[in-house]
Amino acid sequence: xxxxxxxxxxxxxxxxxxxxxxxxxxxxxxxxxxxxxxxxxxxxxxxxxxxxxxxxxxxxxxxxxxxxxxxxxxxxxxxxxxxxxxxxxxxxxxxxxxxxxxxxxxxxxxxxxxxxxxxxxxxxxxxxxxxxxxxxxxxxxxxxxxxxxxxxxxxxxxxxxxxxxxxxxxxxxxxxxxxxxxxxxxxxxxxxxxxxxxxxxxxxxxxxxxxxxxxxxxxxxxxxxxxxxxxxxxxxxxxxxxxxxxxxxxxxxxxxxxxxxxxxxxxxxxxxxxxxxxxxxxxxxxxxxxxxxxxxxxxxxxxxxxxxxxxxxxxxxxxxxxxxxxxxxxxxxxxxxxxxxxxxxxxxxxxxxxxxxxxxxxxxxxxxxxxxxxxxxxxxxxxxxxxxxxxxxxxxxxxxxxxxxxxxxxxxxxxxxxxxxxxxxxxxxxxxxxxxxxxxxxxxxxxxxxxxxxxxxxxxxxxxxxxxxxxxxxxxxxxxxxxxxxxxxxxxxxxxxxxxxxxxxxxxxxxxxxxxxxxxxxxxxxxxxxxxxxxxxxxxxxxxxxxxxxxxxxxxxxxxxxxxxxxxxxxxxxxxxxxxxxxxxxxxxxxxxxxxxxxxxxxxxxxxxxxxxxxxxxxxxxxxxxxxxxxxxxxxxxxxx
Length: 641
Prior knowledge:
Number of strands: 25
Low-confidence stretches: none
Strand content: 15-25%
Structural class: alpha/beta
Helix content: 25-40%
Radius of gyration: 25 Å
Shape: globular
Mean pLDDT: 94
């Protein structure tokens, strides 16, 4: 008796037959051979994942075949310079682990006016040393309310105020010529209600109604909302909003952001086409927005379900076929145990590090580094082929994402501690130096999240004499812990909060615009003045970045904890890899407002001396190390053999 073919084998035969019958494909030359090699390597994963997600549908094989045809056409349309990039990346898969990597992020309109203005900023990007530039959402979106561009009306049209897709393609090419990778957001959990698909769904088109979670009455919305949390209760109650014809559509975030229905394979194919279109414009990294929310299942929280991971892996397999150099960066502001579940070479190769970010600010407020030290020791190291993107702050608010059980292990009540941190950073706590602004404030409960630029949160706005030291201290952590450090552009010259945000149409109800100021031209003009705060911050950051780029131990991600036996001094070691011969860079950082001593007994396992890489001065360890307030050292030393 002949054995029945597995779903993957059946899929392969069906797909190959479809490709053979497809007209218009160029089957000659090395490009076709290259695609065939990648098909042999990656199609089994794609078929397995697609079957897992959609195998209960009668049309799953036809949908998969159509997807592979679309991948093939996208590959054949891929420009030669991007195919050359693919070859380079495949030959050097760990390129993003290099010590010279540095990311910058900005809104095009606020930082440069438009895409042409952005090209004029290229010399300053090179001066800072950028190798990665994340442009905040710049696609067509509703006006004036667009959630900062995260409500996309077309993935193939740039907002006309910023330029055109042709200009974006030219910017990507020019950045690439200067060694800078273009990063954009792929908002794939939802579209705006003005997207062509949403408009057709609203008009009653059954094909496109099935692109979203639309129900005729409240029966199913009420059932889902039994287990789904509200994300923006101030915007609308629950997770559904009513559309003009009386039906209800899932809108996790804002009323104008409609969640896509990935249980429909046509939606997967449609979004894969948009993803590959962006890759062929020269985008090298996609920030995968709201990854935790992309799969819905009745009776669950509809967050971080197993199918969400399968979807990401399936999208990744699509990229390996048609745009093999494209990387994913996850944005998952969830429990720390869930964040790391999205990070792997097969899922998201890069990930924001929200825990390190939040706990750096926590340590700055408390002058106590225990939570941060615990997180670095327990939760920092990642699988090979992946990296953190470490940031001091982003375009978004700061939420206190530490795990309550981690806090409890140190005798800290998580609920009370979050209330304290909120109070401290919005200047409601006596003695606070911070000038943050509450986002989604609830004065009754003390619950909120924090908006503010790095400088304003560190006390520069308040005239605090320690402000510059704090700014450099928090950046030193992001730069030295491993991965890709990311700077919100303007922070390198100490930009302050922009309280005029409320006067701008569409921004008045969203305090996050306070830390998305316009280009601080006067501050940039003072960036080389050693007497000005701007110059001191800029020179300090450039020194940190230069030393990092020259220090092999600081490449990659590997970090080893180091207990300083002083709660106010953070310690960790960077060894550069498991095969290191005993050399290490020991990082010590004093978060206190007073001098702190690390005792000689704590350092006794190290050689008697070392070199502070930042000052290039020798350091004797026999009597321990005294650190001034907000001082940090990167000490190259060795363990006693």
